[in-house]
Specification:
Layout lengths: L3 E4 L3 H13 L3 E6 L7 H5 L2 E4 L12 H10 L4 E3 L9 H9 L3 E2 L4 H6 L3 H10 L7 E2 L6 H11 L3 E5 L8 E4 L5 H16 L4 E5 L4 E11 L3 E13 L2 E7 L6 H17 L3 E11 L9 E7 L6 H8 L3 H9 L16 E8 L1 E2 L5 E2 L2 E2 L2 E3 L5 E4 L6 E2 L6 E9 L2 H13 L2 E3 L5 H8 L2 H4 L7 H4 L1 H5 L6 H11 L19 E8 L2 E11 L2 E5 L4 E7 L2 E4 L2 E2 L3 E4 L2 E4 L5 E5 L2 H10 L3 E3 L4 E6 L6 E2 L4 E7 L2 E6 L4 E6 L6 E2 L4 E5 L7
Parallel strand pairs: 1-2, 1-4, 2-3, 4-5
Antiparallel strand pairs: 6-9, 7-8, 7-9, 10-11, 10-13, 11-12, 12-15, 13-14, 15-22, 16-17, 18-21, 19-23, 20-22, 24-25, 24-32, 25-26, 26-27, 27-28, 28-29, 30-31, 31-32, 33-40, 34-36, 34-39, 35-38, 36-37, 38-40
Amino acid sequence: MFDTILIANRGEIACRVIRTARALGVTTVAVHSDVDAGAAHVAMADRAVSLGGASPAESYLRGEAIIEAALATSAQAIHPGYGFLSENPDFVEAVEAAGLVFIGPSAQAIRKMGLKDAAKRLMEDAGVPVVPGYLGADQDAHTLAAEAEAIGYPVLIKAVAGGGGKGMRLVERAGDFADALKSAKGEARTAFGNDSVLIEKFVATPRHIEVQVFGDGTRAVHLFERDCSLQRRHQKVIEEAPAPGMTPEMRKAMGDAAVRAAEAIGYSGAGTVEFIVDGSDGLRTDGFWFMEMNTRLQVEHPVTEAITGVDLVEWQLRVAAGEPLPAAQEDLTITGHAFEARLYAEDVPAGFLPATGRLSHLEFPADARCDSGVRSGDTISPHYDPMIAKIITHGPTRAIALRKLSRALEGTQVAGTVTNLAFLSRLAAHPGFVAGQVDTGLIARDLDELTETDTVHPRIVARAALAAAGLDGANKWDTGFTLWQPLSRRVTLATGGAEIDCTLRVGGPDRVEIALPEATVLAERRGGLWRIDGEPAAPVHAAKGQVTVFAAPAVAFDVIDPLARAAAAATGDSLTLAPMPGRVVSVAVEAGQAVVEGQRLVVLEAMKMEHAMTAWRDGTVAEVLVSEGAQVEAGAPLIRLDEVEETA
C-alpha cells in the first residue's frame, strides 16, 4: 500500500478519497486554488499545496504543477477523482513519466474509450451490443442523411467527442435532418473542436442503466447496475441501485457485456459501462446497447457501495498499489436498495441557473449518508460546479429506501443560497418514480409540476416573523422591543417576489399573535418549545437580513429594512444586475451609448450556456461596470444607465 497519495481534485470527491485513505493509514496531500485555500478538503488532508489562481485552468487543470506538488511532498501516487484531469490520457502519461502511479486506468484504455465512434467499433468487436447506427468517417451531409434514412427515423445525431448533451439533436422526420445536422456540428465544433458526428437509432422509451466494473488490467468483475434514468438535459439528478424491474437474466447479460468491454481494453481500476435500454416493454436481453464507458469513478458510486458493501476507493488504492482484485465475481452480492440525490446550489424557478452564496447554515440528517465538500460558513464559488452534497439512503427494499430518501431530503437544512432541494423532494414523491416507472423523459414531461412554486402557509410566514423579531430564542420575552413602547412590532418579509407585512403582538413571555394579511396566527411556547397554531414550529435559521424556515420545502425570507429600502429607492432604477454567477462573454455597449428597451447589453456564460442581459428601458449607458472575461457573482452590477429624469 502507498504511504502518501495526492488528490488532484477538490470538493466532495476529494473529501471522499481522503476519508478512505485515512482509514487505510495513508497520508494525504490536497491541492487547492487560491479561492479554495480554506476549503473542507484542504482542512481534512494531512498536507496541502497551493496551485494558485481561481478558475480550473489556473489551478486544478495544471497537470505539471500537480505532478510537481506530488514529487515535492513525497507522494507515490495521484488520485484524480472525477472531472478535471481524471480522463486525460496525456496527464496519465506525464504522471507515470515522473515515476508516480496514476490511480486509475492506463492512458491507452482512456484513449480507446475517448471517442464514441471508435469505442463503439471496439465494443462490436468484443461482442458488446451497440445501438444500430452510422459510425463512418464520411461526414458529407448527403451521406449522413442517407444513413439516417437507412437506420429509420427517429434518429439521434451525436458529436463523436461529445458529452453533457452538447452536439446532440433528436430528428423525428427526414425534412428536419439538414437543419439539425448543421446545428449539431456547429455546437460540437465550438464545444470540442471536432464537428464529426455519428447517427444512431433513437430509442423511444429510453432508460439509462450503467454497470460498475472493476479491473486489474487483465481481468474484471462487475458490481451490478445503477439506474440513472432521472435526468434533466442529460444531467443525472437521482440515481438508484439496483435498477427497477431488473431480472436475473437481464442482469447477467448486461454484467457479462460490461466485463467483456472492460477486459477488451485491459482496464484497470473503477469504471462504468453505460447502456441505453429500451424500457417500452419491460427489460429484455435483446433490448440494451452500449452507449459509452466512463474511465473513472462515477459521481453516483455510493449507491453501488451501499448495496454491495464494497468501498470502491479502497479497491482503487489497493489495485493501483499492485494487489489483485479484492473479490471474484461469485463473491459479490446485492443487499437491499439505495438512492442518491444530487443537491445543488441552483435557482430552479429561474431555469436551474447555478447559484452562489455563503452557506450560513448547512446541516444533514444523521440517518443518511451525505457526501459533501462544503460546510456551514463556506462559499459556493462561481468558478466550480455548484454541488453542495450527495444524499444517499439504503434500505432492505426499494420502497423503504425511497421513503428514507424523502425523509432525508426533508431533514436537510441549507441557508444562504437557493437550492434544488424542493425539486428533489417533489421528484422523490413523483407517482411514476415511486412505482419504478422510470425513463429519461420523465422529468421533462412533468417539469412544470416538479418545479411549481408552493403557496407559503401562514404558519411558515408566522414562524419567520417570530424569528425576524428575535422572539423565538432563549432571551427575554421582550427582546426586540423598545422601552416605553407598546408590545407590538411590525416586520416586513419578502419571498418569491412578494412582500408580507406582519404585526406581532406580545401577550406574555410564551404567547405572540402574528397578524398577517390573510390570517392571524398564534404562537405559543410549551415546555420550552414553540408551537404555531398548535403545530410544532419548524426549525429556523436567522442570519443578517434573512430568515430560512426549514419546512417541507424550506422557505427563505428576506427581512426588509425600511432604512435600506429608502436608500435604495433614492438611487433610482438604473442598474443591470447579474441574475446568476458566471463569466462575462461579451459587453455589447460602451459608456455614453444610447440604448433602447430590449437591446443586448452583456452576455454571461453559466454552466456552458449563454444568457443575454438586455436593457429594461430606453436610456443612455452611464457606466460599464464589468469587462469581458470577468467572473461575476449573482447580483453583481453590470451596466448602469443614466438616471431617469422626473417630468413635471
